Amino acid sequence: MKYILIIGDGMADNPVAELGGATPLQYADIPQLDALASAGIVGSVKTCPDGLPPGSDTAIMSIFGCDPRRYYTGRAPLEAAATGIALCPGDVAYRCNMVTYEDSGLPFAERHILSHSAGSIDGGTSAALARALFDDPAFKAKADGAGMTVYPALSFRHIAVQSGADIKGISLVPPHDHLGEAIGPLLPSGCENAGVLRGLMETAFEVLDSHGLNIRRREEGKLPANGVWFWAEGTAVQLPNFTKAYGRTGGVISAVPLCHGIAALIGLERVSVEGATGELDTNYEGKADAALRLLREHDFAAIHVEAPDECTHNGDLEGKLEAIRRLDSRTLAPLMRGLADSGWDYRILVLSDHKTLTSTRGHDGTPVPFVIYDSRADRRAGTSYCEAAGERGVRVDDGTHLMDMLFETP
Ligand SMILES: [Zn+2]
Question: According to the CATH classification, is domain 2-72+238-407 in 3.40.720.10?
Fold first, then answer.
């Protein structure tokens, strides 16, 4: 018996006026998903517990059976795990974004933040700037004093770790939610250590703003990476082992650090696919191939596709529809063919981790539709895969039960 989980990140939505009141899942042509729904079980599941921020971090933890109310400490520790950064008790991990503040003569705190990604800065330049910053004598003295180390990434998403830090009461905000705003009210606040982070951010600006690489970026018409932004804080996290909990081995195929971090923490393989980008242009077929390869040696494979979520955040409705169509025709279709050729019995669970709303371009924590299909039985449900069908079907109030449903745990 083989088990497959497919997560279309942020596919689910509310009715969209531009689509005549249909949701993207209802509007897009998705024959594979509809065939699974027609023969399987369709329902709706609450993956984001009330009281926690709705997002892929909390939702995907739930889906893998880890109750975020018990285990969630923040997003950065999950991303840190993806790259093998081991956090010790007392360590705090932060996301350390390369960002862009406006070029003006205003004092630091009055400047506006223009980009949360320094204009989607290329990985090489981003890593070089992070290294240059933490090697700068003035910044290094402050970072050492704060017990902070940086782990440069090949994107705007660096991870910083601070040892022995007290973050009780701290308020750090996601920079992508505040583009165009003056940073004064957004800077770290709420406790003594927030002042330390604020000081580091101000010194980082002084060092980076006139750095040679940024002077060149301005000359090339690019946004300078003239700041770092700390957020997504969290302490060391331990998650229950997936194989111990469910008696299955396998891996997680994804392009984003968050999913690989969760995989590492629950003891599943992290599988990367060449050309998998986390965007609309990702390698859809490659993910199906990787899953079929995993299943030859294991009993469980998870595929995560980030594109529908990214398109929604970018306000790209046509992109969202296309991402959903491609997931159906270019990942699910070859996967189903491969499974049929293999002769295995299998069960497959498909869902959106959380809703990402076209209306707000943000996440939403209300229930999402799921489908479970079993190759051994046609349940003749005769329905399609969408939010409305989910609401008419089985109601699962706690997303941590999904794996038991997939594995038919008694
Ligand atoms: Zn998202």
Answer: yes
